[in-house]
Design goal:
The chain is an alpha+beta fold and 170 residues long. The chain is built from four helices and seven strands, in the order E-H-H-E-E-E-E-H-E-E-H. The strands form two sheets. It has a four-stranded antiparallel beta sheet. The chain has a three-stranded antiparallel beta sheet with strand order 5-6-7. Strand 3 and strand 4 form a beta hairpin. Helix 1 packs antiparallel against helix 2.
Length: 170
């Protein structure tokens, strides 16, 4: 279901690289592996008769629920990556994210103070980067993760040039 507020008519969304799914999977694996292991410690202690509490059913239920939630998040990762998009318009840059809670942010070129590119170790290995837009508003969290490095560099230069041109006109 599409709404005009989220998907304005006539917009051709540029999608991020499918390789970004790998970055998100690595993040998922690291975070969830640690979480499930920590939540399984009480189960281990109960099975080894080190602890008498919690009851066995609770010691099993908590890590099992965490595992089910982790698998649900795993299933959503490819769809979440596919939902990330951006579109360059004449006066602003649109950034779209989200599946259940969709968000489209319009960042006017004249409000951009600087454009930053960040690269983590997994992104670097896959030739990807994250483009971050900084404005005067501290609440603006405009970023486009999973861009191919060449596209990120092109977009950074183009957005910086458009931002300077808009600021000069003020």
């Amino acid at each position: 279901m599409h709404t005009e507020a989220i998907d304005p008519p006539g917009i051709a969304w540029q999608r991020v690289s499918p390789k970004y799914v790998t970055v998100r999977l690595v993040q998922w694996a690291l975070g969830n592996l640690i979480t499930v292991l920590v939540l399984s410690l009480p189960l281990l202690f109960v099975l080894l008769d080190v602890w008498a509490w919690p009851p066995l059913w609770l010691a099993v239920a908590v890590p099992a629920a965490a595992l089910v939630l982790a698998i649900w998040r795993l299933v959503l990762i490819p769809r979440q990556v596919w939902a990330i998009g951006y579109a360059e318009r004449d006066d602003d840059l649109l950034i779209r994210t989200g599946i259940f809670f969709q968000r489209t942010m319009a960042v006017p070129y004249g409000r951009m103070q600087y454009v930053d590119i960040g690269v983590g170790p997994v992104e670097r290995g896959l030739g990807l980067c994250t483009l971050k837009l900084h404005t005067a508003s501290p609440g603006t969290n405009a970023q486009i993760p999973g861009l191919p490095a060449a596209e990120g560099a092109r977009l950074r230069e183009q957005l910086a040039a458009r931002g300077e041109a808009r600021l000069a006109g003020l």
